Structure formats: C-alpha cells, structure tokens
Amino acid sequence: MSGGKDSTALALRMREEDWPMDILLFVDTGLEFPQMYAHLDKLESYLQFPITRLKPPRTFEYLFYEYTPPRKNPALEGLPGLSWPGPQCRWCTARLKTRIIDRYLRELKQDFEVIQHIGIAADEMERVREFRYPLVEWGMTEADCLAYCKARGFDWGGLYDLFRRVSCWCCPLQPLSELRTLRKHFPELWGKLQYMDAHTWRQFRADYSVEQLEQRFTLEEERATRGLPLKGRAFYTALKNRLETKAGEREVSS
C-alpha cells in the first residue's frame, strides 16, 4: 500500500469484509509528508492489524547526492549522485519502491503462495496488470475511495483537502498547482526543496528550477494583489524579465 486514499480504502474494506489479508505492506521512501506517517499509525490502530513497513537499503538522499553509477552518457561522467528523477528516468520508483517489494515477495514465494491485492481504483483501468485489484472489482473510483475513508474518520491531516494526489513531497513530476500548494502550506519542505535543487547538477524540471518557480509564484502573488492576469502575453513577458533579472543578479554576486 502507498498510504493514499485508494490503498487505505482497500485495506479498510478488505478488513471489514473479512477478505484474507496476511500482510499489509508499506514501503517507506522517507519522503512522505509528516501527516502520512501519522495516518499510517492511525490506520494500523483502527485495523488492529500490523502494517509491515519496508525501507530501501539506501536512502533517497544518498542516491540523490552521492551514489554514482557508470554513466552511459559521457557528458555526465564524474557528476555525483543520480540527481532528480524525470519522466524518462524514474529511478526513485524502481530503487525505493518496486525493487524493495519484489525482493520481499520473492523471499515469501519460496515458502508460500502469494496473491497480491493492489489498491488501484476503478477509474485507473490502464494501470491494471496481472495482480488482483479489488477496488476495480467493486467498482470503487478514486472519489469513492476518498469518501469511504473519510466516512471512517481518516482525513490524512488535511492532505487531500490541499492536494489531488499525495505522494513524495519533493516529486518533480507534480503539476505546478501542487507545487504552489507545497510552497504555501509547507514552507519548511519548500525550503528544503530549494536547497536540494541548488546542490545538484540536474534542474528540478525541464521548464523550471525550484528557484525559478519561487520567482514565478512570487510574481503571481504580486500580480494577484494588483488584480493583474496570471496568464497571457503580459504575464509571461513579466516572468521572463523577472527570471532574466534574477539570473543577472546571481551572475554578478558570484
């Protein structure tokens, strides 16, 4: 399970309907929101069933800053760490989640027949593969799962009131809307994100560094206060000028 609304709904309903459930897995990447860890403790207490919490042997920070594999691209030779994952290289998912689960289950399969139940909702059919997907069988959509969980007192400390999806807080694949929310409601995590991006070699996103996002979001706030549009030619001209000015200031100071 991920700890999100779909996996939580799956665990709750399987428990309530007495579906066979021998192990409830959670892989801790170390990058969850603090509220998610509190949610897992609450869920475990509610279910009266232990959550098996797995951790990767190497932390995200080590892989991000230090671990340096052989580089296929000569231009990257000598650069430290794996830096930010991206759409074409989601190393974080493989190294921090799927490999950990696969290794754990591979050991179990030496002695047991293993049936995996995956918390994917009915409106995500494109993700269905070879495992069991009870939420799909029950016809429970993502919205159904969230309502089901909230009806049983689970609100993730308000995370789903702020974000559409709740995953690793530093994920570069988040939409700008989620990153705005992170900056507004979790300034300490936003500050850590700025630090991380300033101390690695790959830019946070193809379109923006974290510092450029900071400038964009600041400009949006300024223009909103003045009643100016946040889209269109005027906005993007102002943003371009702001980013160029800040880049020039950094060059002078360095």
> Total helix count?
11
Percentage of β-strand residues: under 5%
Strand segment tally: 2
| Estimated helix fraction | 40-55%
- Would you tell me the overall average pLDDT? 94
Work out the radius of gyration: 21 Å
Give the biggest beta sheet: 2 strands, parallel
H-E order: HEHEHHHHHHHHH
- Terminal CA distance reads 46 Å
Q: Which structural class matches the secondary elements?
A: mainly alpha
Strand line-up of the largest beta sheet: 1-2
pLDDT below 50 for ≥5 consecutive residues: which ranges? none
Shape: globular
Summarize the structure.
The chain is mainly alpha-helical. The protein has helices at residues 5-16, 34-47, 60-65, 91-108, 134-138, 142-150, 159-162, 176-185, 187-198, 210-225, 233-253, and strands spanning 24-27, 51-54.
Describe the structure.
The protein has helices at residues 5-16, 34-47, 60-65, 91-108, 134-138, 142-150, 159-162, 176-185, 187-198, 210-225, 233-253, and strands at residues 24-27, 51-54. With 254 residues, it is mainly alpha-helical. Strands 1-2 form a two-stranded parallel sheet. Strand 1, helix 2 (34-47) and strand 2 (51-54) form a beta-alpha-beta unit. Helix 8 packs across helix 9 and helix 10 (210-225) packs across helix 11 (233-253). The model has no long low-confidence stretch (mean pLDDT 94).
